[in-house]
Amino acid sequence: MGRRVHYSQAYIAELIQAAVRSCPSAFNSQSARIVILFGDSHNKFWEIVKEVKCQEMPAQIFEGIGIKIDQCAAAFGTVLFYEDQTIIQQLQKKMPMSAEDFPVWSEQTSGMAQFAVWTALADSGLGASLQHYNPMVDQAVAAHFKIDENWLLRAQLCFGSIEQPAEARPDPNFQDRFRIFT
Fold first, then answer.
1. d(CA 134, CA 131)
2. Is residue 169 part of a domain?
């Protein structure tokens, strides 16, 4: 991904917000919280990721991961997907019979938001790459961006111009993944 994007940051932010607002959630909890990073904030996020990962792993392993992080940093922006745990806890108290289901439903809400944003960006001709550097980076990111302590980071989606087509991924178990009954 690259930074040759012909849309304004405002347009992309509106696109992302509309995509997330269109997603359903269990009991209309609307627990998804989104942070959109452009420019220096986008670069700082990936610097933090690189610093944390570098401290956490041996140098020979970090080399490959560092390359991947640099590719993410080369993108135009990043969307951070959070789930507000306060909402989940309130619903658990309100409906104790379903208390253990709310964290699962929260993950489903997050997944729908991630897919909706990915699709909206793709429909606009932008490429995206979903990443999961959490939970290692959670504290450093929350401290730098002053993220609410009750927000749980679930995924990061870097996006930008498509610099080369994505490689085709083989699906050797295609037939085993689906069942159709009539």
1. 9
2. no
